[in-house]
Structures
1.
Amino acid sequence: MNPFFLKDYAGPEYFCDRDSESERIINAVENQRNLTVSSIRKMGKTGLIHHVFQKLGKTTKTDTVYFDIYYTDSLAAFINKFGTSLLREKESYSEKIKRMTGDFIKHVRPTISFDGLTGAPTFSFNIQNEQSGIRTLEEVFGFLEKRSQENPIVIAIDEFQQIAFYPEKNIEALLRTNIQKLNNVNFIFSGSDKQLLTSMFMSTKRPFYQSTELMHLEEIPANEYSIYIKNNFESAAISISDEAISDILELTKRHTFYTQFLCNKLYGSGIRKIDSGEVKRMYAEILNENELYYSEYRDLLTKQQWNLLIALAKEDGIGKVTSSVFLKKHYLTNMATIKRGIDSLLTKNMIFKKENKYFVYDVFFAKWLERL
């Protein structure tokens, strides 16, 4: 089995480091503190949450629930995701459906459907208006309160900042009010928009003000990642040089998904002796494989945005994007155009800001852009 997994959580034997982060989350759970975990996308926060849940399952009787609301756009969609996620707890599907529909959900009966491919059941609440949604959500939280009397529950809501874009204007206050009523349920809020999450939990004007502990996830330390990579290759009798590992970490910037992807490709290539040259050849192959996909971005952006994206990729992190030096170097137009371009690229999640510098989000795409 290729040990460099790209999807889901495969177990502790395939998980790299994050020991201190895991201990911090577990400590928060054990001491009834809610926690907010932020990181840029593809840094491994979802895997970390599942890793912590696996540890909790071994050492405690805590029930765990995870759901991702990145693609939700309303309170109704949130409730449907929430209800579906509750079906995945340890209780059987038939028992859970019986309890949800018979004991606790009184206002709106959910429709149960089954995924055509996986067979997994999903909830769909026929919510007619905002008031109906509010009552249904309250009943779902009432169900949680009842369940938490049996076992403690930890609920992780991924991409939590998405609720800020719902058309309903009182979602934060509504969720905060319901969460405060729960005595044996803890929450992990995670997301990829650090600035928005910080505003939600640190602004005195927002309902969730100072209601959680904040934790930001950075890159895995190079020495820990190096050991992990070397051990996984050598366990399959594949030799890999220290220089090759160093190149992997440099080329992928230790962004978890991209590091895993490059290692996955190398592991599956059939090469038994990996040196720096093999790493660079595989990296070039990845860029070439994605060239058609990357080229299509040009049609989705204005000419000015495309040129700005290329400039940011070639700088590999720059803060003064309106400076005359930056503009002249990359043949860009006036400052007002650049500011609008930065805002647009941030909104499109094509770039991110870290330590007052702007970077292209996709590590492979950035390297491809550098070659233009």
2.
Amino acid sequence: MRLLASAALLVPCLAASAYDYCAKPGRPPVEERAFRSAAVDAKIDEVAAKIGDSTVRDMFIACYPNTLDTTVRGDGYIITGDIDAMWLRDSSAQVWPYLRHLNEDAKLKTLVRNLILRQFKAIRLDPYANAFYADEKQKSGWESDHTDMKPGLHERKYEIDSLCYPVRLAYGYWKATGDASIFDAKWEATLNAIVATFREQQRKDGHKTSYRFQRRAENPTDSLGNHGYGAPVKPVGLIASAFRPSDDATTLPFLVPSNFFAVDILRKAAEIVKATGGDAALAADATALADEVSAALAKYAVADTEEWGRVYAFEVDGFGGRVLMDDANAPSLLSLPYLCGIDRNDPVYVNTRRMILSSDGNPYYFKGRALEGIGSPHTGIGQVWPMSIIMRILTSDCEKEQRAALKMLVATTAGTGFMHESVDADDPAKFSRSWFAWANTLFGEAVLEMAEKGMLK
């Protein structure tokens, strides 16, 4: 669901709760919070004391714990916000900033551990699905989609990043806690499913793939062309993704940011397997695939442009076709240093960043009277995603840029004190998704990092 809201008429929430998350700024009352973490609350108090601006401070207090306050549903099941389903991508990203607190809060550690195990189980159920229900018998409202829908799936849009985020989270959990108990036979079965899916989607057998997807919808990006198989590709070693992290169909299936993400998590997965004494052949297979995709990215993902120099394309097809743009949802080109281990001073990334943060270089960079930033075909022309502005903070070394981005975010919440999916560049009172926990938590992460550097006194 993607509805526009205004300050006068906000999008109704879809989750059952006595607390109106859409209309009231600030944290819900203690008795209404879905999950409580003493370690997170202590960190909020510590960081809030370092923030001089009262508006920024109040927003941090409300946004940083928003995932825990509002989206935890039972044993490791975390919804995205105003949609009562768990996305592999969103749920992973929503808890990521809390990894630093796990050793101080056993209850929080258990929550994240259970989430990871739930994600592994979901991937084993269907590595081509992006969103799931807690009840494995529940049927989806998207049951009419022309794809292999199963009970327990909310949606079956195949996206590379849906398989990457849970591995990133598991690796981060392991590094933060030293707990390797999650890496058992079921983990190896999950990793085998991920590697097998990626290899199938390298499309080395031509256009043959077990995955197809069609939907009857007004928006053409909700479905795939060519009878549900998407645009053709030349098998060059890259991995095809049917959909982008925005849940929009790719124009050209080799989605570059997601391939960079795959390389990073395959190497992390191989490290886990080796360190835990797992299947050496599986670790070698993951490493070999990462090396193959990395080499293909170096050869096919870089484009020479007259104005910007050598840049990363957003999508390619192996035939020479390329799409030069960026989409706000992560993984994006902008987010490469944050998510994929790319050096933010890498010359190609620096050129790419200049291109995508310009309306001359990126057709989805919008600048209006109220704010400017990267948007998405998902929300239409003129709608800037706060996530893209937050990502500027998290991928920049320039304090001036970070401060300007924060100022823009604080000024364009339409009085709610929360982040939204997208905001009209001219009128912040027009926005989509009033309850989008990932964006709220990501904002909290950015403010936390700025405060701990002494930037917000």
3.
Amino acid sequence: MARLQTFPMGGLHPRNIGLDTMSLPIRNAFVPHFLYIPMLQNIGAPALPAVSVGDIVHKGDVVGISSGRMSVNVHTALPGKVIDIREHITPSVDRVQTVVIEVDGDFHLGKAIDVKRASWEGLSKEHILAIMQESGLVGMGGAAFPLHVKYNVPPGKRVDTLVINAVECEPFLSADNRIVIEHAEEIFIGISIAMRLLGVSHCVIGLEADMHQAIERMREVTLGKKGIEILVLEVKYPQGSEKQLLKAALGREVPSGGLPADVGALVSNVSSMLALKEAVVDAKPFYERVLTVTGDLVQKPGNYKVCIGTRISDLLDECGVRQAPGKIVIGGPMMGLAQYSDQVPITKGTSGVLVLSKKKAAIYRHTPCVRCGKCIAVCCMGLEPARLTTDIELGQDAHAKSEGLLDCIECGCCSYICPSGRHLAQGIKLGKLRHLARMKEERGG
């Protein structure tokens, strides 16, 4: 049997604890009593509140209006009354302006969007890009990059291939897998819209070999469709990183500091394709998403469709938690962000909630580096994580930058494999944050 394709450098195979959720159908999460809807849920500029305290809102209404090109609208998934607009914590930003809604009223979409478009084929590229921004679409693979910006390829760049990322990058998470199984036809429509936007005739859909049902469903839906290729890849982390996926799928290597468009490709998450179809065809804004809730403390792990703005505490009340969590992580175990409060809301970029016991989340004191080289072996960017971390610890940021600091994708493989328990990925991330802070200071703001 021929060996499955994958990226050639580094990577590893973390234990697939939690993959029992792959077989669990998507369930609708319960309706919370309150929504906490942040105005910043994307890379770029925050939206501006479009409502005032005391306003009555309907399902699908705009509560935040985009503030510029690198911004998108924000909508409410549920009707109710705006009871507050204040600073509130989010999974990735300490405090951001947030619209608080007390849920109440009719759960039908507002009149302005309660209609399906007869045909998307007749819409211009500019019209579809406008729908993306108005509907609040962002990439759902983790970065939350505004989709209307991503698909408006700048002059001088030529894209010939669309790559759909369905490989479910993180261990534990299975929402993308279930979306493919349960919504394959709608995903194909989203892909068709994306291909038309880009003007490309070739699309590669990447899935990992253990996604058996998803592979079968995509093959059924795309059978006989010209230009669509289903590519089954080796199960390997971080296959879902766009640079590693491009290398595995197309054999193309994105240059240091470059983007996929520099090598003629664009990568989109499979969930983004479903959201694109819903926005363009169904006139449905991006106000809910499917995510995985799992961990050794979760009584009812699974894949849930959750209203954006639902607090983690409310979601965990439904899923059940056996005891006080030792750690709550937004995202997966490798690249997710540990939270200090269960009051953070689900946002557009939330792919999973991981709830760990104190035993599983135990933090061990690290010991000195033993120069084993394991971190170098698993680094898929060809870096030397131990050396970079030492540079950062010693304040030698300029040297770390010259050694490839900014090329790190923060996948966490180095920390996972380190026998000394050094927080390598955390150290490198700190170095990158210090670099960004200096850049901002040099620009005068």
